[in-house]
Amino acid sequence: MEKIFLGCPVHNREWILPLYLKHIYNIDYPKHNITLCFILNDSKDRSKEILLDFKKSYEAEYREIIVKEINFNMPDDLRQNRIKNKIYERLANVRNEFLSCIKDEDYVFSIDSDILVPKDSLLRLLSHKKDIVSAIVYNDPKKKYPNILIIKNGRITHFIDFPKNSLFEVDITGAVYLLKSEICKKVKYEYHSFGEDVPFCISAKKLGYKIWCDSSIFCNHVMYPYMLK
């Protein structure tokens, strides 16, 4: 059975982290074949304590649980473009730190820390045997902009009218996706004004890897605390 490297960067997620970890724990896959990895960055809340408590409680069930901290002393304000750009640069660095922790795992299941996955998501994504394959989430509360994009006439646009309940190719994805770990040895995250997933996916495609999405796997993107109510 394939060995899975699963996790994400974590920044000030105390408000959702217990629920996120509950969904991770409930994933229908043998835990002794899963390595969990969380890269804390510039968190000022109880995220670290929550992760360490989870590790203490469940590390015997998993291959390994890694909780690593890397800080850039970055501000939180996303409203100013200058600060937004610095944060995007930080995210690329943190995600590369996440990739550097991969050992002998076969696949990487990247699940952003505000996304709640269904328990069968991993098995369903693995069943496709693709280089990179994502589930569906929306990146806005009104559920207009999905986490899949296409490049048309040189422009990057959200794939809004995607096929429902289908497996299909895309140019760019992010947020919640499964990929072969071999890709992570050849491709790194970089800064992009649309987010660090864009250059990662573009570089992977240039190397001949294909990117897919299974729109039948829908995940809940809880972007703000009020969305938990």
Give an overview in words.
With 229 residues, this protein is of the alpha/beta class. It has a single domain (4-228), classed as Spore Coat Polysaccharide Biosynthesis Protein SpsA, Chain A (Alpha-Beta Complex), CATH 3.90.550.10. The chain has helices at 17-25, 47-58, 81-100, 121-126, 181-184, 197-206; strands spanning 4-10, 34-40, 64-69, 107-111, 115-116, 132-136, 148-152, 155-158, 167-170, 172-173, 176-180, 211-218, 220-221. The strands form three sheets. Strands 3-2-1-4-11-6-12-9 form an eight-stranded mixed sheet, sandwiched between helices. Strands 8-7-10 form a three-stranded antiparallel sheet. Strands 5-13 form a two-stranded antiparallel sheet. Helix 2 links the parallel strand 2 (34-40) and strand 3. The chain is globular, with a radius of gyration of 17 Å. 36% of the residues are buried. The model has no long low-confidence stretch (mean pLDDT 93).
